[in-house]
Here is the input.
Amino acid sequence: MAHKKAGSSTKNGRDSNAKRLGVKRYDGEVVRPGTIIIRQRGTRVHPGNNVGLGRDYTIFSLVDGKVKFEPYAKGRRKKVSVYAAAVEAVA
Here is the structure.
């Protein structure tokens, strides 16, 4: 005779690992080539000038410069670009 009541396996208790998505570098921050700016699922933010789009939709910098978030076309879409800092002329 059993001394414990039969326990059924629970149907809950599982969860996936966090994927650490989101903006990694904000507007005005200085970045180097290869710096990840945004990790996302799909193109919530579109790539602009001097940035690349990875296979998993990660947006990363291609040049040294400052991050700039801008409107993309009409509507509520956004794009992110990296612009090189203005080079001062040496007199």
The mean pLDDT is 89. The beta strands are 22-23, 30-31, 36-39, 45-47, 51-53, 59-61, 65-71, 78-83. DSSP finds no helices and eight strands in the chain. The radius of gyration is 22 Å.
